[in-house]
Amino acid sequence: MSETERVVVILVKPQLGENIGMVARAMANFGLTELRLVEPRDGWPSEKARASASGADWVIDGARLYDTAEEAVADLGIVYATTARPREMSKPILTPHEAAVALSDRLASGEKAGLMFGGERSGLDNDDVALCDAIIQIPTNPDFASLNLAQSVLLLGYEFFRQTNERGGRPRKAELPPVAAKADMMRLFEHLEGELDEAGFLFPPEKRPVMVRNLRTIFLKAGLTDQEVRSLRGVIRALSTRRQGGGQGNG
């Protein structure tokens, strides 16, 4: 599997089958093969998508359907969100080129990474972005910044394809341990948030969603490994046991 084939394109609530097909064509142009769809408005499979793919049938045929963005990224360690809107989250903001460079060594070592795109009308919501490790913003003319879905995928696909070719035979940096899959991170978040609810920390209720997103962002920015996630869950269990009166005192 080539490096570009390890880049997974995730479309969250895309609307038109024609646009999905044009995304598939853009992916095929630059060697991206894995397409994941979350709640496509017009259903799936789509003959309009196939017609618009202009022969990129292998991308259309291999597309996988998911009920939620969380399920679509569960097996991925690193996911970048593409959005032009400012967000009240402290996440790294990268250009397409910076994103391709940042992921280069991880892709070369065999890891897969996701690029998440929102629907044509409203893009990604905050909960979708909160699942991601960084935000990609495409520099455009501020007087006319609108890009359609396929254009965005095309630009990112080009940068990842170019980065792969420019690497050539250059050696990778020191081997990086794989980051934990998003499914394991979600279990960590649910564990931590459950204990914080019990302790009364996530209060008042109307502020809970923002507090949760901010906490998740802290851990996602750390790029935790499987072992680090297991260690943190052990810490949470120990603190919970002590809070509930089951731990040993200091004498």
Automatic annotation (TrEMBL):
Keywords tagged on the record: Cytoplasm, Methyltransferase, S-adenosyl-L-methionine, Transferase, tRNA processing
GO molecular function, one term: tRNA (cytidine(32)/uridine(32)-2'-O)-methyltransferase activity
Chief localization: cytoplasm
UniProt protein name: tRNA (cytidine/uridine-2'-O-)-methyltransferase TrmJ
Any GO BP annotation: tRNA nucleoside ribose methylation
Tree of life domain: Bacteria
Organism: Lutibaculum baratangense AMV1
Primary role: Catalyzes the formation of 2'O-methylated cytidine (Cm32) or 2'O-methylated uridine (Um32) at position 32 in tRNA.
Family: Belongs to the class IV-like SAM-binding methyltransferase superfamily. RNA methyltransferase TrmH family.
Gene Ontology cellular component annotations, sorted alphabetically: cytosol
InterPro entries attached to this UniProt entry: Alpha/beta_knot_MTases, RNA_MeTrfase_TrmJ/LasT, SpoU_MeTrfase, tRNA_m1G_MTases_N
Subcellular localization: Cytoplasm
PANTHER family the record matches: TRNA/RRNA METHYLTRANSFERASE, TRNA_RRNA METHYLTRANSFERASE SPOU TYPE DOMAIN-CONTAINING PROTEIN
Domain tRNA/rRNA methyltransferase SpoU type intervals: 7-157
Assembly, per entry: Homodimer.
CDD domains membership: SpoU-like_TrmJ
EC number: 2.1.1.200
UniProt catalytic activity: uridine(32) in tRNA + S-adenosyl-L-methionine = 2'-O-methyluridine(32) in tRNA + S-adenosyl-L-homocysteine + H(+); cytidine(32) in tRNA + S-adenosyl-L-methionine = 2'-O-methylcytidine(32) in tRNA + S-adenosyl-L-homocysteine + H(+)
